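Exercise 7b. Backbone tokens:
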């Protein structure tokens, strides 16, 4: 089936943006509403349910994309990150978290085959997961929450902005840990930035009427090594015992133009787990790291897009 996943940047809460939307290189569309019902417990109907009503229509789901730098900028915007050009280098775009998740999106699916357009308005991104592995694209999965859902019986008629930039792939990845390049040791990496948002209903609506942060957000990094690495394992155990912290930098560069980089700096990382794997076979190593708020940078993660002009 031929479908296109579209995202519009709203001017504020309450008004859908469907006149101009960005087309994502999405691999799925998980924003279909799910319905909960409440059933009457009143006696008198024998062994059958007596009555019921639709009590909740949850507009939430995952939106996975094969990442480009432009799409990542858009997704991080929806996750409450704001960008600004560097004061010295205008081609360097710096993205950091704002004080609150307030950047509302409209997320839609244009069904070309069936001439239909469905969309959710007032969407925020609760979490972003960025990952790549051997022989794979860099993928970004945005977990979204919205407050309304509309189905149009005709296709999308607005202006569609096609994806820009070259898809990011595993071969453009660089991972630096405490100043040392460890990319050649790693076969997969997974980065999760979680705002921990949750939808809130009201008495008079099946839909969410507010989206709030339920608890403090978290940032985690997990890596799978291509073999058991004794120095890393020993150092990890030492760092866990001493509660040591260090910096991790990940870079995803366009293969055709290595100067076009999406860089993520995690200045205050602490190892939370280092585990030997495949002991009965070739032997391996996995590690998990928590990236905490850094007092100097005022963020757990600083994002820089090099040689770049913002699309927003």
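Sequence design result:
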């Amino acid at each position: 089936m031929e479908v296109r996943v579209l995202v519009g940047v709203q001017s504020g809460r309450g008004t859908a943006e469907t006149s101009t939307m960005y087309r994502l290189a999405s691999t799925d569309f998980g924003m279909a509403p799910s319905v909960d019902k409440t059933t009457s417990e009143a006696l008198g109907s024998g062994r059958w349910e007596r009555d019921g009503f639709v009590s909740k229509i949850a507009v939430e789901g995952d939106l996975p994309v094969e990442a480009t730098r432009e799409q990542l900028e858009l997704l991080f915007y929806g996750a409450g990150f704001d960008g600004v050009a560097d004061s010295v280098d205008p081609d360097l775009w710096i993205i950091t978290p704002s004080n609150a998740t307030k950047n509302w999106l409209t997320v839609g699916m244009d069904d070309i085959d069936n001439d239909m357009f469905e969309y959710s308005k007032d969407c925020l991104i609760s979490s972003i997961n960025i990952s790549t592995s051997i022989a794979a694209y860099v993928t970004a999965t945005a977990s979204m929450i919205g407050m309304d859902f509309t189905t149009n019986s005709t296709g999308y008629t607005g202006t569609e902005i096609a994806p820009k930039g070259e898809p990011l792939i595993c071969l453009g990845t660089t991972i630096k840990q405490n100043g040392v390049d460890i990319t050649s040791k790693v076969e997969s990496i997974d980065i999760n930035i979680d705002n921990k948002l949750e939808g809130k209903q009201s008495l008079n609506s099946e839909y969410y009427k507010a989206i709030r942060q339920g608890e403090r957000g978290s940032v985690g990094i997990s890596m799978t090594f291509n073999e058991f690495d004794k120095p890393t394992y020993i150092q990890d155990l030492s760092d866990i015992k001493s509660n040591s912290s260090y910096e991790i930098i990940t870079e995803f560069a366009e293969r055709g133009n290595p100067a076009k980089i999406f860089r993520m700096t995690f200045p205050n990382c602490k190892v939370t787990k280092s585990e030997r794997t495949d002991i009965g076979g070739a032997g391996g190593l996995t590690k998990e790291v928590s990236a905490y708020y850094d007092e100097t940078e005022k963020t757990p993660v600083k994002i820089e897009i090099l040689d770049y002009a913002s699309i927003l």
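Instructor comment: The two ends are 30 Å apart (CA to CA). Residues 3-305 form one domain.
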